[in-house]
Design goal:
By secondary structure, the chain is mainly α. Helix content is 66%, strand content 0%.
């Protein structure tokens, strides 16, 4: 399932990807592909962060007493849980995430159509 990104977010992601490609070669980037320790590291970080946001923000008494804050904190927890499921599914199946691109001369695909 691909989560749609708005145009600004996608431009931002592609810019960050260009920066990564400028800093790392294809072999270094491949260390973060699904099924690798690098991807497992992301999975762990998302889990820890989701747990922390739930425990220290969503369940905080100040947050619980404010409807708007609680709703936003709950959205954050739900988004992190969804991200965990998406990364985990791709990681366990050894699949690249939806839309993953490595724009490197040796790995770049030609567009058709």
């Amino acid at each position: 399932m691909k989560t749609p990104a708005d145009k600004f977010t996608e431009r931002q992601r592609r810019q960050k990807l260009r920066e990564l490609v400028a800093e790392m070669d294809a072999a270094e980037l491949s260390q973060f592909a699904s099924g690798t320790f690098g991807c497992h590291e992301l999975l762990d970080r998302v889990l820890v962060l989701g747990n922390n946001v739930e425990q220290y923000v969503l369940d905080h008494p100040a947050c619980v007493q404010n409807e708007e804050w609680y709703a936003l904190a709950n959205q954050a927890v739900k988004a992190l849980r969804e991200l965990y499921q998406l990364v985990g599914a791709a990681h366990l199946n050894g699949e690249d995430g939806a839309g993953q691109v490595y724009p490197n001369k040796s790995t770049r695909r030609k567009r058709t159509g």
